[in-house]
Amino acid sequence: MAAAAAAAPGALGTLQAGRARLVAACCARLGPGWRLPGSVTGPRVAPAVWARGWTPAAGGGSAPRRGYSSEVKTEDELRVRYLEEENRGIVVLGINRAYAKNTFSKSLVKMLSKAVDALKSDKKVRTIIVRSEVPGIFCAGADLKERVKMNPSEVGPFVSKIRAVIDEIANLPVPTIAAIDGLALGGGLELALACDIRVAASSAKMGLVETKLAIIPGGGGTQRLPRAIGMSLAKELIFSARVLDGQEAKAVGLISHVLEQNQEGDAAYRKALDLAREFLPQGPVAVRVAKLAINQGMEVDLVTGLAIEEACYAQTIPTKDRLEGLLAFKEKRPPRYKGE
């Protein structure tokens, strides 16, 4: 007993040190030079660079700013639209491989990675919607016609590239919404699972069906599906390769909203736009930091998560937006946030 009691302080110290490391890792995401609150490791310093939307460009230079227009910004297989007027700040990623059911090809993965890399460093981007430009299809997973031509040695690295681009989408600093107006199977559902919010038409079909092909989900599905709907049900769906419609997906918590499909076939996209418009008036720094606090906090115990929240909250205190919010409240007018 005495030995156990003597060991307890050391074990507690190890646990606290581990928590401090986890929170420090989270703060590293907030930007270089930042510190935890003084009670943990030291004084607070400059506001979060990450939270304000900048990341260092390759070579140390400034990332180029993008203009905002409704025009297509990249090749036809991936259409990137920067919305205008009252929707300014919303960016739409539209997959457009109709002949291949929007499946992940080498070229599409490369285009997605390039687009996401530009978006994460654009401080004017407030919300990103991932959708399909092809009626009835969201994304049917990997391009199996391309896959069958690969040597076995090529398959693993290609799946790693798909996983990497899905991870990049999951790590975007702004809210992301998957608008599922059609089929989302395999990697297509994994893409949707990487988004913060999922909305779907009732006619949409969703499932991780890889076990039918004697493989397992390789784009994060075995990890994100249990986190979304619970371990037991995720196992059931993956083991059976079951496909759910929109109503069933809503019932198990896989999606947040289900809509009856409209004649245009874009009911989920319209709902995603409505949600994105709700996010636009809020403080941009606050939304980014809230996303970071939630994402990081869900991966740790409650005590560590609360420390992460404290660290993130501290980043909003020195911002101009916080002062603008208080002034707008005092003057009884809508705030004019600038993300500063």
**CATH level-two architecture of the largest domain:** Alpha-Beta Complex
Number of domains: 2
Number of helices: 13
Largest sheet: 6 strands, mixed
CATH superfamily of the largest domain: 2-enoyl-CoA Hydratase, Chain A, domain 1
Average pLDDT level: 83
Widest sheet, order of strands: 1-2-3-5-7-10
Name of the top-level CATH class of the largest domain: Alpha Beta
Spell the H/E element sequence.
HHEEHEEHHEEHEEHHEHEHHHH
The proportion of strand residues reads 5-15%
The number of distinct β-strands equals 10
Structural class, by secondary structure, is alpha/beta
Report how far apart the termini are: 56 Å
**In which range does the helix fraction lie?**
40-55%
Contiguous low-pLDDT stretches (5 residues minimum) are: 1-9, 32-74
Write down the overall geometry. globular
Radius of gyration: 22 Å
Describe the secondary structure blueprint for this structure.
Elements: H1 2-30, H2 49-52, E1 78-82, E2 90-95, H3 106-120, E3 127-132, E4 137-139, H4 144-147, H5 152-170, E5 176-180, E6 183-185, H6 187-193, E7 197-201, E8 205-207, H7 221-229, H8 231-240, E9 244-245, H9 246-251, E10 257-259, H10 267-279, H11 284-297, H12 302-316, H13 320-331
Parallel strand pairs: 2-3, 3-5, 4-6, 5-7, 6-8, 7-10
Antiparallel strand pairs: 1-2, 8-9
Helix pairs in contact: 1-12, 3-5, 5-6, 6-7, 7-8, 11-12
